[in-house]
Amino acid sequence: MVGLKEELLKSIWHAFTALDLDRSGKVLSHNLCTVLNVPHDPVALEEHFRDDDEGPVSNQGYMPYLNKFILEKVQGNFDKVEFNRMCWTLCAKKNLSKSPLLISDEDAFKVWVIFNFLSEDKYPLIIVPEEIEYLLKKITEAMGAGWQQEQFDHYKIVLNTSREGLSAWELIDLIGSGQFSKGMDRQTVSMAINEVFNELILDVLKQGYMLKKGHKRKNWMERWFVLKPNSISYYVSEDLKEKKGDIILDGNCYVEALPDKDGKKCLFLIKCLDKTFEISASDKKKKQEWIQAIQTTVNLLRAGSPPPHKEARQKRKELRQKLLAEQEELERQMKELQAANENKQKELETVRKQLEAAAARAAEEEKKRLQTQVELQDRFSLELEREKMVRQKMEEQVAQKSSELEQYLQRVRELEEMYKQLQEALEDEKQARQDEETVRKLQARLLEEETAKRAELEKWHLQQQQTIQMTEAEKQELENQRMMKEQALQVAMQQLKQLELERKEALEQYEEVKKKLETAANNTKSWKDKVAHHEGLIRLIEPGSKNPHLITNWGPAAFTEAELEERQRSWKGKKAASE
């Protein structure tokens, strides 16, 4: 009831400020009781408007009567349009512009009612630029025209420089001037205002013609349906003169699509607690729009939410209040900063004066300091001469110590260089031994492959001997096999030659590694002598003695006598097995 009271107060305020209450206050109160269906209280009315010295018909005197005897008794069972029209009648004649407008008086009345809905909750009533933009956008969309944002931004800048918003009459002049509806005729503008009025004021969420199936005769009749937040009313025609019934909506209702039947298409069903209504739309698009609109309304009823346009208005107001609070907080902070800045300026002035006094004291102290400095200079001159003599002696001693230290450091650097070269020689020797080991492994692999090839050649030779002793009937076939084996033998001989070449290369690499090893050993020996010459700081670790190398008919071998005997036994065993 608080929101209803605020809406009523806005319309009453217009009528209240337009009348001379000394003569017409009783008339206004009587009319309000009539249109709001509030019981008349003649005694209270006469008591309030009696003639006395205090003038009880002042603004402060009338509002207590209005709240106590009229508004607190309003139950909501009244015609809002009739109430607004009564207030409009009392205030329009005095305030409406005399200049010709592009809208009719009826359209001006609807704009006035919309103004009361969108205006701020403070008096005198004004509508802020954000709500003006919202209303003009709604009217432009209803006309099917494009919104000119740049034009409105320019108008908004001009408006903000002079005032916070527009009064109801200035808003009517703005819309009636056609500034934002250029190119549109009066009828189009009137239809657009009526559509916005139905949505915002009459809470019409959707309306249009559809067919409805009767409950008794089961016949289909065309009706004009009007969807509101808690009901769907249907009339004979869109002039709303003859109402045929209502479909009361609540959270238990639901709507669903039906398949085509009885020659009717685009059917849907509205199920309520006591009745079910079958309705046929003109096309599939209208059917889907109505189903979605009704379902949205039912969902809002279930959630206890207000209609979308009222909820959007509340959110816009809350956003403006939030921005206003932030702006006030920012202004408060700016004032605090300004006050703090003034305090800082005062503090800086005090500090400046203190600095000037300190500078004067410092000048006096500087004068005394200079006098004392002259006296000290004479005394320090003698001490300086004595210090020069002492420093000269100390410099001579330091020079001598520096020369000795340089010689010592030079000797240390020579030893470090010799140690580094010795390390490099040891690394070369270590690398040479690793290369020798690699060559030995390669030589062993080549010998093993050579042994395998020789065993395979012996095997093939024995097979040839056995083939010669076979019968004459198998001679031709064996001859062919012999030829194939001879070819394989040639291939094996070639591989053997290749292994021989690889063995020679391995021997050459071995000789080269051996030379490197000898060179490294000589270097190690020479460095050992040098180190021993320099006071024996480092003792070389010599490699151990080497066993004498075995010599084969192909050169030095990398095997011991035991390894060679083991390989000889293995070769003989393979040869005996092949025979």
What series of H and E elements makes up the topology? HHHHHHHHHHEEEEEEEHHHEEH
Class from secondary-structure proportions: alpha+beta
- Side-by-side strand order of the widest sheet: 4-3-2-1-7-6-5
What is the fold-level CATH name, i.e. the topology of the domain at 206-306? Answer: PH-domain like
CATH C-level name of the domain at 206-306: Mainly Beta
Fourth-tier CATH superfamily name of the domain at 206-306: Pleckstrin-homology domain (PH domain)/Phosphotyrosine-binding domain (PTB)
Which percent band covers the strand fraction? 5-15%
User: In which range does the helix fraction lie?
Assistant: 55-70%
**Tally of helical segments:** 14
N- to C-terminal separation?
124 Å
Q: Give the number of DSSP strands.
A: 9
InterPro entries: EF-hand_SWAP70_N, PH-like_dom_sf, PH_domain, PH_SWAP70
Keywords: Cell membrane, Cell projection, Coiled coil, Cytoplasm, DNA-binding, Membrane, Nucleus, Phosphoprotein
Domain PH: 203-299
GO molecular function: DNA binding
Please provide a written account of the structure:
Helices cover 68% and strands 8% of the residues. With 579 residues, the chain is of the alpha+beta class. Among the domains are: 1-95, no CATH class; 206-306, Pleckstrin-homology domain (PH domain)/Phosphotyrosine-binding domain (PTB) (PH-domain like). A seven-stranded antiparallel sheet has the order 4-3-2-1-7-6-5, covered by helices on one side. Strands 8-9 form a two-stranded antiparallel sheet. The chain is flat, with a radius of gyration of 59 Å. The model is unreliable at 53-60 and 536-542 (pLDDT under 50).
